[in-house]
Structure prediction request, 134 residues.
Amino acid sequence: MDAISQGGVGSMEYRLTKGGTMGDVWTQNRLRTNSNGTYELASDGSPILENELERVGSVLPKWNLGFRNDFNWKRFNLGFMVSARLGGIVVSPTQAILDGFGVTEATAIARDQGGIPNGNSMISAELLYYCRTR
Prediction:
């Protein structure tokens, strides 16, 4: 067995592979782009999906930082803690699902603007956001 999939949402999944980490995120549906960085479109105007499994990053941070201290003076106690996670990608399955249904602020803005700019043309917000969640 080369990999163990821990499931995910839509085309995103957590996958453990030899040499990888437990937080590796893989996706199978990535939008195809050309050399100019714009999305390639099918004849109906919808973006073309790449269906190759690809590692896109890890949700695990590169660094964890933490500091805690307490101060006591007479009957007054003050404690504080500072913590940070530095690095790693952020994945929001909730955002992806809501985008697919077209109920987020981002999709409303895209609809109001007539779509998403793609070089010298526009992509329909419905086609782009629905395509991303398949």
